[in-house]
Specification:
Layout: E1 5-11, E2 14-20, H1 24-44, H2 50-96
Antiparallel strand pairs: 1-2
Helix pairs in contact: 1-2
Amino acid sequence: MNAKIEVHVQIFGTGYTIRGEEDQEYIQKVAAYVDQKMREINEKLPVASLAKVAVLASLNLADELFREREERRRLAESVSERADRLSIALDSCLQDV
């Protein structure tokens, strides 16, 4: 088990101390991505509330996650179907030998 580390990050102008088992670079990269999403939301739809920006950014991030999961599921299904077809073709070739 990895030791927990503390990383100081800035997200949308506020400092946070993040404790985690991932390396510092990874935690900073994730925090920068969240910061970027919050800033994108604020530029497109300026709202007065930090909470609203955070919720809208969270919804966008969840949408990205769901789309990526669906794409991964489709790709896995496609690979499985191709593998099945290749297995059948290989079995057929081996029976002919």
